[in-house]
Amino acid sequence: MRAAIVRTFGGPDAVEIAQVPLPEPGRGQVRIRVAAATLNPVDAGVRAGVFGGDGTPLGLGWDVAGTIDAVGEDVTDRVVGEQVVGLAYGPRKPLGTHADHVVLDAAAVAAAPRSADPVHAATLPLNALAAAQALDLLALEPGNSVLVTGAAGALGGYAVQLAHLRGLKVAALADAADEELVRSFGAHEFVPRTARPAPVDGVLDAAVIGAPALEFVRDGGAYAGVIPGLEPEGVRSIRTGAIEVSPDGARLAELVELVDQGQLTLRVARTYPLEQAAQAHARLAEGGLRGRLVLVP
Fold it and tell me: pLDDT tens-digit profile of 272-292?
């Protein structure tokens, strides 16, 4: 079968489509025939060598939507033929979701949204789970205020919507051109990038602003980053931390339900065939996307 891999680190041209053995599911795992797989900034980081490696080929792709075509031993809650979404965690794995098939732990998948096609469904797992887990880390109470940086991005957009659903007062930091978009997600206040917002109880830093974002937080508030290890040191008794997104099929099922209820928006900027994975990486590097790029085998 085909898979997008990197053998040497570099720019988009480092991505190659290779023939690799068809993976077999082990105990507690399922194999998914990939219908669509999202390209995320973390894939560009893997390609560029941000996470290192030992010289063996690395697979690309974290998000997947597709159909289960094989199950391993002790899998009782997933069946062959079921349409699912899932998260293939890990920056250094031999096979990712940018492939014809991928094997995941059964606990990392959930039934696919009934209201979305696979291309749109594939944009959900990584970014929505990251947004939900970052909000958990903030541990704010209904009525508290939160500023979401990068609010028009894929992760930021989910964060605005999920924060709104939690009863938080949401301020959205984004480009001026994105005001209507982020307000449609449920933001109570729009903050242009060049403006200074009123102090908030917490910041979810989807744009990875880092230490400057602490200026927006009240004394004793909270900061949640989305890249582990890059969170700033706390000041003024501000609690800081960062999530390392983790697979969670049960939580993913809750997010799928929100999609089917019309409370989470799935956004696709463009699709590419798997063979054009390098071109998709090049487009990602150009920036300015509103929605995700999705690879289709």
Answer: 999 999 999 999 999 999 999
In a domain, residue 257? The reply is no
Considering the chain, what is the average pLDDT of its residues? Answer: 97
293 touches 271 (CB < 8 A): yes
CATH assignment at residue 189:
3.40.50.720
Question: 16 with 92, same domain?
Answer: yes
**pTM of this prediction?**
0.97
Q: How far is CA 95 from the centre of its chain?
A: 18
Residue 97, Cβ density class (10 Å: 0-12 exposed, 13-18 middle, ≥19 buried): buried
**Model confidence band, residue 164 (pLDDT cutoffs 50, 70, 90):** very high
Judgement on whether residues 193 and 273 belong to the same structural domain of the protein: no
Beta-carbon contacts of residue 14 (< 8 Å; ≥ 6 apart):
6, 7, 8, 47, 48, 278
pLDDT for position 14: 97
Question: Which amino acid, residue 60?
Answer: L
Whether residue 237 has pLDDT greater than 90: yes
* Per-residue CA distances from 234 to 39, 128, 181, 218 (Å): 32, 26, 31, 12
Model confidence at 71: pLDDT above 90: yes
110 and 148 part of one domain:
no
CATH for 73: 3.90.180.10
Residue 287 domain flag: yes
Secondary structure E strands in 40-188: 58-59, 63-71, 83-87, 101-105, 109-111, 145-149, 169-174
Residues 110 and 135 in one domain: no
| Residue numbers of the domain that contains 112 | 2-124+266-296
